[in-house]
Write a structure and sequence with these properties.
Blueprint (H helix, E strand, L loop, with lengths): L1 E10 L2 E11 L4 E5 L6 H8 L7 E6 L2 E2 L5 H6 L2 E4 L11 H8 L1 H4 L5 H14 L1 H5 L10 H13 L5 E5 L7 H18 L2 E5 L3 H7 L2 E6 L2 E7 H6 L1 H8 L10
Parallel strand pairs: 3-8, 3-9, 6-7, 7-8
Antiparallel strand pairs: 1-2, 1-4, 4-5, 9-10
Length: 247
């Protein structure tokens, strides 16, 4: 599904990603873990063409997306749920969801399918249907996260990038969000690249994981093995803290 080879990205003179290589197979959930500033969001933004990659190979289903504009990347099947949700506050819930399908409105014969997908989002997130005429900025944090995910799904992505979906949310809401992530893979067949501050919860739903440190991949492996890795436990899992996932 996705292949990244020797990706380098800069912020000005700062070398943010250094020869990063990773891959995702169709239907996988793969998580990126690492400290703040490790390059996780930069990697997602490089894939989405929000930040241009300086060099490296980016292949989506065998097609190069390096150097393409963001709208073209979306049209090829990649959507991102950004950190902090970034919903359009003055617009209604329904209008935010419709914006996720913006590129599809240009295609002939998509009107009916877009309406069907809107109903599918309401079935997946019933609280959004209850608030469909409500301004997005008045929603709770958890509801905004659901809206951000729904908006990305309206583009019908083959690969979904999720950036810190649990940030700032209550533990029970976090559990709901992770159930949605699992459902997207099991029922929708969506491939997911997940960046998540709650590394333990992320590894519990993921198939594989990569550890980023100062812009480099320093470790990769099966998620269950990373959960048991002593270095990962010490640095990222807070093994002495009670797990949100088990509350």
């Amino acid at each position: 599904m996705l292949k990244i080879k020797n990706l380098n990205t800069y912020y000005g003179k700062v070398h943010a990603l250094k020869n990063v290589s990773l891959h995702l197979s169709k239907g996988e959930i793969v998580t990126l873990i690492g400290a703040n500033g490790a390059g996780k969001t930069t990697l997602l933004n490089s894939l989405s063409a929000i930040i241009p990659a300086a060099s490296g190979e980016l292949l989506l289903e065998g097609k190069s997306i390096a150097g393409l504009p963001a709208d073209r990347v979306v049209s090829l099947g990649l959507s991102q749920v950004p950190e902090g949700r970034q919903v359009f506050n003055p617009l209604t819930v329904e209008e935010n969801l419709e914006l996720g399908a913006y590129l599809r409105y240009r295609a002939r014969g998509q009107q009916g399918a877009i309406k069907e997908d809107l109903q599918r989002m309401f079935a997946m997130f019933p609280r959004l249907e209850e608030r469909r005429r409500q301004a997005a900025g008045t929603l709770s944090g958890g509801e905004q996260q659901m809206l951000a995910i729904g908006r990305a799904l309206m583009a019908r992505p083959k690969l979904l990038l999720l950036d810190e979906p649990s940030m700032g949310l209550a533990p029970l809401v976090v559990q709901d969000i992770f159930k949605v992530i699992q459902r997207l893979r099991s029922e929708e067949g969506t491939t997911i690249l997940l960046v998540e501050q709650n590394a333990r919860a992320a590894l519990k739903v993921a198939d594989r994981g990569y550890v980023l440190e100062t812009g480099k991949v320093i470790l990769e492996g099966v998620a269950s093995e990373l959960l048991e890795n002593k270095d990962v436990q010490r640095a990222y899992l807070g093994r002495d803290k009670k797990e949100i996932w088990e509350r």
